[in-house]
Fold:
Amino acid sequence: MSIHNLNLLVVDDEEELRNLIISTVQDSFAEIYQAGDGLSALDIVREKRIDIIFSDIKMPRMGGMEFLQILRQENYHMPVLIITGFADKHSAIHALRFGAFDIIEKPFDEVALQATLRRAIVSRSLEVENDRLIEEILKQERTVKELQSEEMQSLLGLRKITEKLVCLRKIRNL
Structure:
């Protein structure tokens, strides 16, 4: 998966921070979506193909922790990068336990953000490739089973023909 085929979702109630993240990473993504809270973000995830998410922890309506938990409950496995302030370290640790990919502290360093993003992109690309390969293997297994079934039917047909030939020879020899 090319880096430019990936879609990003930035979730934060601070529009200025969303725009800062987007301006920092926009060249790495085909599409970038944004939401002001976890509830709006969930709607986007359910409607669009999202590959990587930046999410704040503290937001109105639905915070980042609840958003992350629902994502995992609904079997979404994209990397979620949690954005947090210094006072939210305890929440950040819990986010990692719930499957967050990494934590980015506010105010973030652009170089560190880019490095974390590159790791998330590699992780997501490998996951997508792994899923593709698994699907290919399953498809090949189905094809093999179909061929085996057809071959078995052919062998059964040949056996019946052979049995008939044996019977015909017996009749002819009488």
Summary: Residues 3-131 form a domain with the Rossmann fold fold (CATH 3.40.50.2300). The mean pLDDT is 85. The CA atoms of residues 13 and 41 lie 11 Å apart.
